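Open question from group meeting: does this chain pack into something compact, or does most of it stay loose? Before anyone orders reagents, we agreed to write out a predicted structure and look at it together. Recording both the input and the output here so the notebook holds the full record.
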Amino acid sequence: MNLLQRPKAALIELYDSHDVNLYSQLAFLKHGGYDTTLIVSKHQRQQVSHYNLEERIFFTSCTGKKGLLLLLELRRIRNLIVKEKFDVVIFNTAHGSTIRTLCLMHFPESIRFAGTLHGVNKLAGSGTQKMISSRVRKYFLLSFYMREKAMKMPHGDLKFEVFYPMFHPRFHDVEIHKKEAGALWIGVPGAVEYKRRDYETLLHHFAALKEKPNLKFVILGNGNHAEGNGAQVQQTVKELGIADHFIFFNKFVTNDLFHKYVQACDAILPLIHPINADMEKYLENQISGSFHLAYSYKLPLLMHDFFSRYKEDFKDNSIFYSLENMGEMLAALPVTLINKERDFYTEDKWTFEYQAERYLSFLR
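Structure tokens returned:
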């Protein structure tokens, strides 16, 4: 690298997911003086159009391609990386067969590789991940409890660091439901699916309260998703007579609308309970996007007691409950939030500067 030039970085997302993690990394790299190129799936064109960070964008079309067509597209990406003489290449999603194939191509030894591992379980027994790890020696993880799990697994000389992708571009201002005076809004983000979130425990515990607090649950996901359970959740809410306490959406919620509602909320309720295999993966191996949304807007998390063991991630931002006392927690929530207001998000790690330096130091 010419010391008179800015270091060059490529941030790569070849899949059609995890776009919510891109903006923070681009902002960190800009903060660190990197000349950055974003290489991203063309299916994420709309999402990245909000960023306005002046980085160059190179769109790819790996999705749905196989065999020779995929190999040719990956060769085009590899040639771009070599031609541009990037100092560092960062995979926003550092797993999967597409990334494996790209990693097995020849690159100059001067290029350093890093990437985000979204599930630490992939470190155990995945041949694909082992091949990626022959190229990617530094992995970013999205929580301290994921790093704790990774360090207990066979990992050789791989290195791990944690960053929170908790920063977002400025979205357009849009109209939302009017918030009544004295009401508390509780955000429940994500697709409305029983396998992902324990809506039933919430509904029945809240309905059982004789005196209901002035809470409104904002179910921030497409309630009309073909493979979801939105219709069942809405029907149960009506049958229990608590419809006035819920806001539902029956179509895709745009980023502008989604973030406007999150900012209007007073707390985030992930509804991740240790009751089935789909939820249990969030207990050690990966994170829920709800966590970073709460971090973004400094909102308290309402969390199952299981997560209280992870103090690095949740000690100064969460209110804990058990499945047995969830109703009691909700009943007391208005008073609890007032009493604990000054206890939330007190550490430096919730600042942009802290997160950026942690990220950049790991790359260096």
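Observations to bring back to the group:
The radius of gyration is 22 Å.
Residues 79 and 107 are 9 Å apart (CA to CA).
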